[in-house]
Amino acid sequence: GDPIISFVEHQTTGGYPKIANVIMADLYKVGQLKPGDKIKFDLVTIEEAEELRFEQLAFINNLEKND
Known about the structure:
By secondary structure, the protein is an all-alpha fold. It has one domain. About 35% of the residues lie in helices and about 0% in strands. The protein is built from 2 helices and no strands. The radius of gyration is 15 Å and the shape is elongated. The termini are far apart.
């Protein structure tokens, strides 16, 4: 079958193997997907994921300062 992305509303059981995680910096992108949309996963280290999140938060903070 196809991979399934589960968010906080996922069922508590199911026995699905966990093969990947969506990094925090990309959750907004996944939240915009419609059923059947195609996505691509890239392998990143924890350090890279953290850096991407820090960059995203800095961008958001900068937007808030400019309002």
